[in-house]
Design brief:
Elements (H helix, E strand, L loop, with lengths): L1 H31 L13 H14 L4 H12 L19 H16 L4 H15 L34
Helix pairs in contact: 2-4, 3-4, 3-5, 4-5
Length: 163
Amino acid sequence: MRKKNRRILGWVVIGVIVAIVSAVAMGTRGQESQQPAGSVYTFSDVREQTIEFHAYNRAIKLIAEQDAVMREALTALKAPCCADRTAHTCCCDCNMARSWWGLSKHLIANQGLGAKQVRTAVGEWFEFINPDGFSGNACYIARCSRPFRENGCGGMKEDNVIF
């Protein structure tokens, strides 16, 4: 009987371990599904990360090769606030542009990412800061002083971001 009880206990323990591992795996899959496939950066807080990205924009000076990566990445994206321009050549230095430029510089200079990955991350940033999307004309219809989530540029003064 003892041998049979140990065998049963062993199977119970194995079953419990399998259940725990499955539950953890399901929880992890749920978290991953919140990030788009192929994400290279995790966005969590518009306010904190905008300030962080502004700091990168000020501090990071790209060398020629890195600047070429940034140009390639951002030229392929329309600026969300002025869609007749690219994300590389936004019509002004608004707070939204400073944020995606800083994010790009960080991903290139500090993480060594290429143009495709940077373009993906910046596109995800656009979606994160305004899930409803942008009209592409905020700069031309006086929406510069509105928050990103309201199809705005977050203001023009870096020390006064409008959230």
